[in-house]
Amino acid sequence: MIDRTNRPGQIVITQPANIGPALGEIREILGFSRHELSRRIAATTGRKPNTAYVQLWNWESGRHAPDVASVALVLKELGLGLALYPLEDA
Question: Which of 14, 35, 55, 56 has its CA 20 to 30 A from that of 45?
């Protein structure tokens, strides 16, 4: 679901419809546990860590899709930003 080879230093989500599972894959690549990320999200948002954990699990398992604001929050807590770039084949 992600490609780290096309653009050095960048992570490209190749299947945007599967953004939740891709976020889980990115989290694992960066060495964060779901518990650690949920604690970070809880501290930022004021939610309970358990609530954030369940939400992350639902997104990463593909049960629910995160909205854009949630994607941005998760990426921020992972130390990443969201970038848009032109498609090469467009």
Answer: 14
